[in-house]
Automatic annotation (TrEMBL):
Stored InterPro entries: Acyl_CoA_acyltransferase, GNAT_dom, GNAT_N_AcTrfase_prd
Protein name: N-acetyltransferase domain-containing protein
Organism of provenance: Kribbella sancticallisti
Segments forming domain N-acetyltransferase: 35-196
Length: 302
């Protein structure tokens, strides 16, 4: 079921998106994904979250993503633990905790969706529920990290949710032994989601701004990182106001089929994207075909 667009109110157009409208958008997204999203607190529910995450990441036994005890403590302390249920079964979960400045920002630590519920919009429904919950608790922003080489996550975070990024975190978690990261460096982009920004309100209503590659190039964007015919990275130029950086189509598959090429992409993205952000640039979006849009002159979010 395709999400129906929820027209933003006049307040939303001015950047003052109400809690009621955020809740309504979350409910529409959940209905489109055919799930119910709600907060979880019972021990049996928290056990299910741990089991779901273990199923998704298949970690080393000594290093699970979360434990029931940790989730129990987070819930008791007033933090965010929620799940998406389909016909009573948990198919997705998301957890977050408050970060400085006190209660003004939520750090979304981990979110995952079962393989059986992929491509239904469950992740979108979870994030919109998290946004509405955060607004109800007076937070103004949510932050989280993701692997900059994973193309679908870049599009989801930066275009579908209209988040932005200004910080590259090299090998943030150290080497990770789960079956998704398979020992690769855990480089991450730190995402900021300004919950009341007009761009975010429109994205959550089903009307995101999707960058157009041809239009960006016509407007003077330069290619800082390209790909050759064999799928390897090729350095370009960063001498422009807007810089486009390519990523591989499927780095998770590439890690298994051609580890050398995957490592080349890791190095190339780090060597081009990290300096741009460190110098004051901002990732403002992601082109569906696989390109970061980096604005070298950081702007106010709106």
């Amino acid at each position: 079921m395709k999400q129906q667009r929820v027209p933003p109110s006049e307040a939303a157009k001015e950047g003052e998106y109400s809690i009621g409208e955020a809740t309504a958008a979350a409910l529409v997204a959940a209905e489109a994904a055919r799930v119910t999203v709600r907060n979880l607190s019972l021990l049996s529910e928290l056990d299910e979250v741990c089991a779901l995450y273990n199923e998704i990441w298949r970690p080393e036994p000594r290093n699970p993503p979360v434990t029931t005890e940790l989730l129990r403590a987070m819930v008791q302390a007033g933090n965010y633990v929620a799940g998406a249920l389909s016909e009573g079964a948990l198919v997705g979960a998301c957890i977050g905790f408050f970060a400085p400045p006190l209660a003004a920002s939520l750090h979304s630590h981990i979110a995952g969706v079962s393989g059986q519920a992929q491509a239904r919009g469950v992740g979108f429904a979870l994030k919109l529920h998290q946004r509405a919950w955060a607004l109800e608790h007076s937070a103004t922003a949510i932050e989280w990290t993701f692997d900059p080489l994973i193309r679908r996550n870049a599009f989801f975070n930066l275009t579908k949710l209209a988040a932005v990024s200004t910080q590259y975190l090299p090998n943030f978690y150290g080497r990770m032994g789960d079956q998704i990261n398979v020992g690769d460096d855990s480089d991450r982009l730190l995402i900021t989601w300004p919950l009341r920004a007009t761009s975010v309100a429109r994205a959550c209503s089903g009307d995101p701004h999707e960058p157009n590659l041809a239009a960006l190039l016509d407007a003077g964007a330069v290619i800082g990182l390209d790909r050759d015919r064999a799928g390897w990275p090729v350095k370009g130029t960063a001498d422009g106001r807007t810089v486009l950086l390519a990523v591989p189509a499927d780095v998770e598959r590439l890690r298994g089929e051609d580890p050398r090429c995957a490592q080349a992409w890791r190095r190339a993205v780090k060597q081009t994207l990290e300096p741009l952000l460190r110098a004051g640039g901002e990732v403002r979006g992601f082109v569906r075909e696989g390109w970061y849009v980096v604005d070298r002159q950081r702007r106010a979010t709106g």
